[in-house]
Structure formats: C-alpha cells, structure tokens
Here is the input.
Amino acid sequence: WYNSLGQVKTKTCDEIPASVVVEVVLGYKVDDKTTATEITQRQIEIKDFLRRYFTGKTTDELKPNNEVKLQMEIRNTINDDILSTSRIKDVKFLQLDVIEQY
Here is the structure.
C-alpha cells in the first residue's frame, strides 16, 4: 500500500458546500518497485486529481454507500490518466469525512 499521499481537504460542489477531508491509500502488487516509484514521482498530480475529484462531487455522491463506486472511479482515472508504466490495483479510504454546513 502506498500511504504517503496525506490528507486532501476541499469542498463539495453543493449550493452550500460541505467540507471534505479525505486520506487515500493506493494498493499495488507486493514487491512492485516500479509502481511505488511512479506513484512517488507523480504524487503531486495524484493529489491534485484527488482534490479536483472531490471538489466536483456533491454531498449525496460522497455518502458511505457510494464508497466502492468512488474507489473504482479514482483507481481507473489514476491508471488511465496519471500513471504511464504501472497500474494500481485498489484504492481505500483511511478517512472520508464530509462535514455539512447548516
């Protein structure tokens, strides 16, 4: 697991935006040094993508019952648009807090 991305903080695209705090870890094959190296080299792009990804979501889209869908979308986008020589296998949330403003 690659767990050095840290927290990403942003807001949702709702009319009254909610705060989002997320910490994502990326899974890849054990002993796959190529993927670990490429993720490290592209850490800035990955964090920027995650910030933009969550900024484009509504509070409803970030509900717990949608987590698997969110994880698949994130994995597919990182594999298709950011990584060039390697692939991640899985995405997990260590933290996904959506704080609504009332």
